[in-house]
DNA sequence: TCTGGGGTCCTAGGACCC
DNA sequence: TCTGGGGTCCTAGGACCC
């Protein structure tokens, strides 16, 4: 059976709530809700009453008035997650964490040393329960996708490892919504063609699926229907973006207060980036209006940055671009994200050439050519940048004057990393 | 369901270059 | 000068996940 893999998906049940119940005997057996304004996690006792993650606190209270609401203790969750991960590392050579409470394990070939997938799964559950005191559900199959579906079917506190001969029957009996990656919108599209289960999908030829849903989606539907998911389990995937956002309530919000939130977000994002030694080129502003419709505006800088002032200045500009919309429709959320992360040794943009106080004029061309250097220094000072690029100036709406030759500007090729030329990002 | 915060990936059009 | 094709980058939005 060359090529057949064995994948486990392990998921801590109601993770935050389980940690709270573990640490406070009085909470055991009772409905527990973690988080105040919004439900971050609900214990299974609370779920039985209809409480769900992401739900507003008020609604949760109506559904389950006797629930105990506790504030999240992030340190405890991070510590528990790290201990569980260490146990997983003992169980399998390849472990891919996907979130604080979830991971994939590749246990292919371990049967040669007497460890079956089901045996590893049972061992994991037993040791996590004994050493960390938390319930863990494990699903197993020959693909990631099916391992995750099996895990979902085994919850809570269960183990379900599919035998190879049972996989297709199990898969095809599931509703399409059970497939990770198929959400409400995709379910709706499939439903319009009379497709409700994975079995319905499997009954259609690939050409039909491609004709209906396009090459990418159609091909993917066909592959999952036949349990062909070759996505490998790999450790240490590099992060692609850093972001932070803040809900504002219905408002109205004074511009100065919005600006203060923006500043706080830029600070938070860039501090996390600097801690990780990362920097990025694309700044994205996210705005949600009073009617809860959300838009994004983004700008790509010539050089990477992890500086709060640069991110803030860019976000302010982007926000100014939608000022009219915000004034008319109100504002309920602002967010800032930085993507376009590059290798750590690429040059950094130290500060953006945006100066709100600048009057938009350049120094006159110096009569004495020797004074050009001085003028350039003045320009650098005005724009507050060490890496003065033509692109940066143009983007800032500050076309360089004719007397400033290309040689006076740092060409983008010197600094701005072009994708495809820079080495792939190393794992964060 | 009167609505948090953190992410990933995909699509599509336009600009620009060769 | 006109026409064409292909590739990359940027921007905006959407879907999905925990």
UniProtKB/TrEMBL annotation:
Organism name: freshwater metagenome
All copies of domain UmuC, residue ranges: 7-183
GO annotation, biological process: DNA repair; error-prone translesion synthesis; SOS response
A GO cellular-component term linked to this record: cytosol
GO molecular function: damaged DNA binding; DNA-directed DNA polymerase activity
Protein family: Belongs to the DNA polymerase type-Y family.
Name of the molecule in the record: Unannotated protein
InterPro entries reported in the protein's UniProt record: DNA/RNA_pol_sf, DNA_pol_Y-fam_lit_finger_sf, DNA_pol_Y-fam_little_finger, DNA_polymerase-Y, DNApol_IV, PolY_HhH_motif, Rev_trsase/Diguanyl_cyclase, UmuC
């Amino acid at each position: 059976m060359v090529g057949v893999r064995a994948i486990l998906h392990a998921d801590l049940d109601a993770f935050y709530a389980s940690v709270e119940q573990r640490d406070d005997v009085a909470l055991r057996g009772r409905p527990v809700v973690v988080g105040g304004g919004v439900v971050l996690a609900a214990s299974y006792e609370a779920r039985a009453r209809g409480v769900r993650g992401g739900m507003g606190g008020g609604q949760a209270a109506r559904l389950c008035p006797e629930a105990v609401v506790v504030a999240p203790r992030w340190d405890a969750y991070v510590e528990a997650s790290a201990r569980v991960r260490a146990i997983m590392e003992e169980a399998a050579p390849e472990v891919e964490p996907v979130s604080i409470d979830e991971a994939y394990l590749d246990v292919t070939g371990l049967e040669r040393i007497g460890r079956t997938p089901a045996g590893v799964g049972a061992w994991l559950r037993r040791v996590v329960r004994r050493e960390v005191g938390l319930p863990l559900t494990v699903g197993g199959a020959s693909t990631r996708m099916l391992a995750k579906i099996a895990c979902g079917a085994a919850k809570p506190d269960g183990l379900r490892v599919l035998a190879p001969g049972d996989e297709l029957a199990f898969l095809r009996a599931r509703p399409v919504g059970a497939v990770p990656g198929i959400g409400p919108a995709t379910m709706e599209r499939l439903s319009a063609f009379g497709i409700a289960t994975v079995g319905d999908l499997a009954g259609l030829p690939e050409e039909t699926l491609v004709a209906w849903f396009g090459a990418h989606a159609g091909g993917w539907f066909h592959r999952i229907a036949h349990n062909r998911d070759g996505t490998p389990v790999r450790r240490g995937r590099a992060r692609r973006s850093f972001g932070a956002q803040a809900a504002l309530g219905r408002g109205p919000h004074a511009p100065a207060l919005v600006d203060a939130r923006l500043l706080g977000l830029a600070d938070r994002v860039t501090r996390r980036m600097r801690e990780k030694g990362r920097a990025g080129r694309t700044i994205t502003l996210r705005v949600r209006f009073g009617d809860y419709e959300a838009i994004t505006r983004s700008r790509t800088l010539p050089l990477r940055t992890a500086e709060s002032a640069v991110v803030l200045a860019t976000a302010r500009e982007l926000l100014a671009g939608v000022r009219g919309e915000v004034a008319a429709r109100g504002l309920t959320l602002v967010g800032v994200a930085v993507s376009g992360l590059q290798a750590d040794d690429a040059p950094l943009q130290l500060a953006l050439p945006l100066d709100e106080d600048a009057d938009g004029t350049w120094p006159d061309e110096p009569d004495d050519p020797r004074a050009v250097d001085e003028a350039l220094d003045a320009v650098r000072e005005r724009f507050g940048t060490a890496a003065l690029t033509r692109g940066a100036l143009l983007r800032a709406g500050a076309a360089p004057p004719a007397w400033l030759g290309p040689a006076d500007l740092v060409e983008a090729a010197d600094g701005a990393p072009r994708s495809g030329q820079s080495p792939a990002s190393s794992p964060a």
